[in-house]
Structure formats: structure tokens, C-alpha cells
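#lab-general

N.A. 3:47 PM
ok so I finally got the sequence cleaned up, no stray characters, all 719 residues accounted for. can someone with queue access submit it? mine expired

B.Y. 3:52 PM
send it over

N.A. 3:53 PM
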Amino acid sequence: MFKRFLVFALMVVSLVPVMAQDDVPQKAVDAAIQAGADALGSAAGSFTYEILGLTSDSALNCGLVQGEKLPFEVTAIRVTLIYPDNTRYIVHASMSGQLTVLCDQAFGDAMTTQFDDTAVCKVKPVSSLPAYKAPNISMDGVFTANGGEEYRAYGISSDNGWYQIGNEDSVGWVEATNTTLSGNCDHLPVMAVTNPSAESVCFVTPQGGFTNVRARPTTDSDRVDRVYENQLLQVTALNSDGTWFYIQPAGWVSNTVVFTMGDCVNVPSNDSALGAGFAEQTASTIDTDTATIMSQFPCPADFAGYMQPRISIGTATAQVEAGGIPNTIRAFPSVDDTIAPRLGTIQPSRTIDRVIAGPACNQGFVWWLVDVDSVVGWTAESNASSNDYYLQPVSSTGATATVSTDALQVGDNAVTAIAFSSDGSRIFTAGTQQGFGDAKVGFVTIWDANGTQLARIEEPTGVVAMDYAKNADLLAVAAGDGSVTLYNPESFEAVVSLPQLFDSNLPAPKMVVSPDAAFVVILSCATSECSESILRTFTFVDGSQVAFESIPDLAMDALAISPDGQQVAAGGGTAIWFFGNAPDLIKTQSGDSGVTDVSSMTFNADGSQAFVTGCAEHAAGTACTQGKISLVQSSSASVIGIVDSHSGVAKDIVLSPDGTRFITTTDVASEVIERSATTGQETNTITVDSSISSIAYTADGKRLAVGTANGQVLFFGLD
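B.Y. 4:20 PM
back already:
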């Protein structure tokens, strides 16, 4: 019936934490990465994605292959896999990750042979059976599955008692008894979570591509999991006002984001239930004892008497703490050898292959079901009595970049700015040196790629800011006298100089130039107290002012221009403003940036989003102890997601040349942290001995340049 149909098992390759937790289709991305790795032999280092919308075609909107009609709709995602050598491959995936399609000629034979009918699981009723709307005989029938006829299987219930099958037009559930199987049925995804002991038969299913599952019946509660389109989940409890459904053992879903079926009126109330999330398993690996253990040793609300978990379910999401003792794997979540035999050990620093389920709480320990070298058992994450963590999240450490042997000695004082020419043949560094008497003289040094000094541009009134127009290959320098000059990096001569663009008696402004060097944007204070700001653009053709925008009652501390030069963003305090049609600066949106003490900004590669650095909310007059980075939608000025970074104000954000990563630093610690621009996951951490005064990527994005307070530029290779 369903010839040449593609199906992949539900796979998990965790890439947490994600920056935009409510937007990144993590299941689809994980499945696409795994599909690419299976076809190419190695996994991508980063990715971008695009949501294509609903489809009932098994090809998932890939025009390079021919699919077949699905009896339901799925949300198709196009994922572009980016490998370390910057080669790219396209994979399409459904929102839940259950279907993937290689959609790139570069996959070769793997793309043309992926629709293999032997990979399809088929169910054959011995005699005619009713296919129900949900896996329970009290539900309405959808169609009749004829005896002796084969039907494509799409999923299985969590108790292994039901198969989800489809005919040409619809899907339904048949009891596993009185059926036979053929094809590859080892990895059917769990498409329904059932609870035979539930007091009433009520199922819910997401209204959209996915629905968040919360620990408590409130949107302010922690998200512990997600459920996806076409999944059915049996409800075991309601909150007291009937607005949230509890799905044991996962957690709570709001009635505003799910459809209901069955008797959902007579479900008992239980406001105290605590959600912990599902185990990421396929039917072939489900252990019926796991659910029993989870219900036998639930973790109390707020983990009272236990330590808050730091790890999460997924592949390679946790490791044993370095420098500690080996972790024991047990058959049961207990330290009593008589009831919990030891199955093996996990050595310090070892990354756990897979965290399958958890947490369970017993004897003051927080336990997780794990898989290490095919040994599956329970291991402890923490012990409340000794206040010890034994496991740590892999994502918290990141990879550590290694310093190269080369460095530039720029001067004796801080390197205040670093830039690179588009082809990497020129390096530009800004700093100050001692002038006549007590005066300070600013300068920009131009170096070749080998670190040989080629030229030196001195600015007696100081260098206020420096930027590089990458499309025009011109260097822009703002001096303390209010002028901005464009320099040719080859001849070292001034191309054009615009005088008095800002008041030199007021606090130093922010400056960016358009990529084509057509105009310059100046963000400056309107008064000495900087109680309001002024945003202006000037053309380099004749120095005329093109636009003037007053931003009242706010000191703006950050300025950015999009890679295409069409948008400008300014930020300060907690606010962010967007302007389009540059250089005319037509205000498009303004809003809350999601952070306090906005310190720096940059646009993503296509200008659709802006990264904003600053601090978490803190009391007036107190130091910032938690840096934050928010991702803001340019078109709406709405915050998409936030990630913690640094132990002080996060600042000096710089996007990598290929737009896949970004770096930030902080005044509190001499560190640079690199993160994925799509997930927010930490990828590299650099710590130096001197205070950091500036940061930049090299032109090829393979190294970081770090300016220090003692006048050096250090180069760090990236893993």
C-alpha cells in the first residue's frame, strides 16, 4: 500500500541549552543532524533552520525526491547542516524528528536510495479490527482494518498494547493482539502515552507543531519536556480550575494549546503533581519497570530535601565530575547493595552515552537511568546529605580554545579595538600612548597577516572608535576631535575625512559604518549628563547629515548595523530601538531588550534578529553577578530567547564571519565565551592572565584575537 516510503526511528542528539527554547525545533534539528551523520559518517558542527509549514507529503517539501501522501499533516523543517570546513548539506525533518529526508544532491547515493520499503513496519490484522481514534476501546472508531490486509504502522503506545496504523485517508489505533508484523518494526516511535489505571479516558494532542510540558500548572514553571504533533497523551489529573492537564509522568500542559478527546470532565483534580518529563525512548527499549520506579520515587516539589538537578535527558548531556571518584551504575535507584546490585562504574570525566530517564529521588540522592557502553542502570547525580554533585552537564564546560604561540605587542596600554580586513591580509589595532606631558595620544596600527607592522595612524585627540567597511575594504576611525576618517588599508592614506560629527566635549559616542562605506552612524549623548541620546547618519560623499533621531530620557550604550547595511539598532538600559531604510533611519520597532544594562549588540547574518548583551535584573547600586544575552526579533522587537553567560555584565559581542557563532566577554573575569548563534550552546571558553580590553574573530573565523590591558593581542585557535 505504501511503496517507497521513508521512516526513521525517533533519535535524540542533544544540543542544549538552546537560546530560544520556545522556537528552535530541537527534535527536528537533532534528527536532521543524526541523518546527516548516518549518511556522511560525521556530525555537523552547527546548523541553521527554516520552518516550511504543514505538509502531508512524506518527502517533507523536498523537491529533489518523490514522496507519498501521509494520512496526517506534519510540520516540515529545512535544516542546513554546517560542517567544520564550512561545507553545507540540507536535510528536511518533521517537527517531531520522526521523519527525515536527505534533500541535497551532495548526499549522492544516500539521497537516491533512502526510500527503502524494507524500512517500513506493517501491521496485518488476523481478522477485521476497529481502528480507534485513540488507544482505548471506549473511543470512537475511525475505520475498519480488514483481516489479512497490511497497513503502514506509524507508532506504538507506551504500554506496547496498541499500534497506530493508516489507510489512504486517516490514522487509527488497533490492539496489538490479533495482529502480525512485517518489515522493520524495532524502532517504532511512541505516539501515545497510555495509563491503564487512569480513572477516566481522556486524551490530549498538541494544537500546533509542539506543546511545552511544565513542572507545575503555570507558564512560569520550568519546561520539563515537549510533546509533538499527532501524539496522544492520556490525562491522569487536572488542576483545581480545570485549565491544565497532567500527563503522568511528564507534567502539565495548558488547555489553550491542546485538543481533547474522550471523557475529560471527570478527571480527578491534583494540584500537587510535579512534572519531570518523559524518558526519550522508542518502544523497543521501553522498560515497564522504569515508569513504576519513577512513580515510586517521585521528586518532591522544588526538590525539597534534594539538590536541584543540573543535567537533562538526551545523548551525551552529562559526565562524571572531573577529579572525583567513579560513579556506580545500579539496577535500582538505591545505595543498598541488597536491592540495587552494582552493574558497573563510570570513570571521572567520562561522558555518559545517554541519559534515558529521570530524575528519581530516593535516600537524599537524585537518580537518573543511564546507558554507558550498553550497560543500562541507575546512577546518582547528587547527594543532599554531603552537598555533593557527582555529575555535571556537558554543555556547561564547553570546549576550551588553545592559545597559539603568536601575539602582537601593540603598546604598553590597553588595546581598545581590533579589526581585520575582509581577506585577512590586514590587522588593525587601536590604543593609546603617552603624549607630551600628561596627554594621551591615540593611534591605529596596521599589521600584515604575519604580524609585521606596516603603518601607524596617530590621532592626537585620541581614537574614540574604529570600524571596518568590509564590502568597500576601508577602515573608519573616529577621533576625539569629533571627526571620522576613512583610510585605505593598502596605501594607508585618508580617503575622506568628515569633521565635527559629534561634540568632543560630551561622553565618547558609538560609531558604525555601512558595509559599503556610503554612510556613518553616530550614537551620542545629547547632554553632559547623557540623560538622552541622539542617533544621526552622515554620508561620506559630502558629509551631509541624512537623518536625526532623538531618543529622550535614555542613555544609549550600544549600536549595531545589519550586514546588508539596511537596519540600525540602538540600545541602553533595558530598551532596544530598531531603524530601517538606513541611512534615512525610519523607526520600525522599539521594546524591552530582555536584559538590563545593555552594553553591546550585533545583528545575525540576515538581519532578522539581534543579539543583545547585558545583565540579569539586579538591585540598584549593586554589582551585576549574572550576565545575560538575549535574542530579539528585528521585525517586532520581541525577545525570542535568553541565555546566561558570564558572572558579570556580558559585553563586546562579535558575530563570526560565517554568522554561525558569536563571542562575548565581561569585566569581572578575564574570559571570552563563544556560543552557537542558533542554539546559544557554549562552544569555546578562553581565559587569559591579563584583563581583556577588546575581542574579534580573524577573517576566516578560525581564530580569536583578544586585546589585553597590557597592550597585547593574543590569538587563540578554535576547536
